[in-house]
């Protein structure tokens, strides 16, 4: 864990706290950082959607899924 001292817009922090349901400033900031990381990961995955060529047959895909 790292301790930081930063200046943050109080109105923005309070709005983020209300929207996130967080009880503390720390929870609010951690929630916001997690939301940012999650959104960026998803955006990057979407960029690569359809760019990988799969060579699985329908039968192999069913077996991989555990279907009969």
CA radius of gyration: 21 Å
Helix content: 55-70%
N- and C-termini, Cα separation: 48 Å
- Whole-number count of domains: 1
What fraction strand? under 5%
Q: What is the number of beta strands? A: 0
Largest sheet: none
Structural class: mainly alpha
Summarize model confidence as the mean pLDDT.
91
Spans where pLDDT lies below 50 across 5 or more residues? none
Tell me the series of helices and strands, N- to C-terminal. HHH
Can you lay out the helices and strands and say which pair or pack?
Layout: H1 10-20, H2 25-47, H3 58-65
What does this structure look like?
- The chain has helices at residues 10-20, 25-47, 58-65.
- Helix 1 crosses helix 2 (25-47).
- The mean pLDDT is 91.
- The protein is elongated, with a radius of gyration of 21 Å.
- The chain starts with 9 loop residues before the first helix and ends with a helix.
- It is built from three helices and no strands.
- The protein has one domain (10-65).
- It is mainly α.
């Amino acid at each position: 864990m790292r301790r930081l001292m930063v200046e943050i817009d109080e109105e923005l922090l309070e709005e983020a706290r209300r929207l996130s349901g967080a009880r503390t400033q720390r929870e609010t900031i951690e929630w916001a950082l997690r939301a940012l990381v999650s959104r960026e990961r998803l955006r990057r995955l979407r960029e690569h959607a359809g760019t990988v060529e799969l060579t699985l047959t329908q039968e192999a895909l069913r077996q991989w899924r555990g279907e009969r």
